[in-house]
Amino acid sequence: MIKSLINSLIKKIKKHKFGAFLNNNSLPMKIKYTIKSLLLVSFICLTSLSFGQNSVVSQKRTPSGKIRCYTNEYEQYLQAKDPQRETREEFEKWIAPKIAEANLNTTNRNVNAVIYIPVVIHIIHNGDALGANENITDAQALSQITVLNQDFRKMLATPGYNTNPVGADMEIQFVMAQRKPDNVTATNGIDRVQKTTASYASMTSVETLKSQTSWDPTKYFNIWTVFFSNTSSAEMYGTLGYAQFPSSSGLSGLNANEGAANTDGLVVDYRCFGTAAIAPGPYFSGYDGGRTATHEIGHCFGLLHIWGDGTGVESTNTPDCTATDYCADTPQAGWEHYTCGTFNTCPSVPGNDMPENYMDYTPDSCMNIFTLNQKGRVAAVMAICPRRATLATSNAATPLGITDFEFNSISIYPNPTHDLLNISLKGAELPNSIIIYNALSQVVLSKNVSNTNDLIVNTSSYSNGIYFIKVIKDGASKMVRFIKE
Length: 485
Fold this sequence. Notes:
disordered N terminus; alpha/beta; 9 helices; single chain; six-stranded mixed sheet
């Protein structure tokens, strides 16, 4: 087999000028075979780099040695595993007209069009006590959901707000799952999974983990928190997170393979999941604001890096001003940025760079914007891509026993509500008490009911989103969902 590989390689080389060198009869036979052996070794090495599942090496690290995002390398990994997986070029060709349509519809959308995404957070640990190391607290996990909603909704008076004219409210809100995939067991959306692995050194090991623990990705948006290896020689060393891009496969004209469903979602190192502004926890310096997950979810929803993943290199001052992220309102950038500031890496193109965009590589404190064109791109993905379009109609965030607006003799109105919410019961009997929970399962109101006035709730101070009212009577209870706009 070795001999045939050598001969095959030599035949290819002989087509080029170097073949004449090998055919030189004056060369000693020993030298010829030495050269042939070296060529074979080079061939094997290059083949391994191209097709090996554990050989993807990231060339982009932050000044502190972190890999801000491993998503492009993950795509290389998936392409190597499955050559039939559609390329980025195929995806862009397919989705372009859908994005154009979405951009036209964006200005006509209103708050009633907000997409609510049911989330499950798989906290992977190897037996540490709750709150120790990678077995992070509920508070740290839920603080990440708060950040996501601030960022994707451009919430006023939060780190996710901006005054940029092209800054967009993405009209996407994340809520914790309320029921498990068996549809009979309640959950708070946090899934703690104990494994024997202390830390994850290779992408293959992470992918195996994901496939073993994923919840139905047509109903749940899967997020995993893990401990990426601290060993400097490990493939995943320094990685903050990575995500799986959406797919158009299964639709007319493209491959039938949609990519692995049981690995769909994003993975984030536990030390950059959540925000120190809300919950204590072990965090990486500079990445303690929850923006790693915001960035990676951008990829899950179809967004590319803001510099278009071009070949520009800051250290040699060689910008690539030809690459694109397919969003006209994100200024051309010649390379990624690792610090806050004002930059103009492509002076021949109007506008400064946008390092504050969530899809750059800057520290968390720099980031605060998605743009209108990015919103159009995400809207197209959420409307038509496999495992994305079904999330909006999933019942995963609906507590067990709930229907949308009425439970037997209990109803609430108006729903959605802006300020006063009325709870109505048929007949004169009153409940004993009511409790209102937000989408993070946190209590925002609890009170006893003594008269009908207690069934009117002022929600004007509540943040926009989904809420649940528990109506309690003689030890029994019913849950009703409402939306605050």
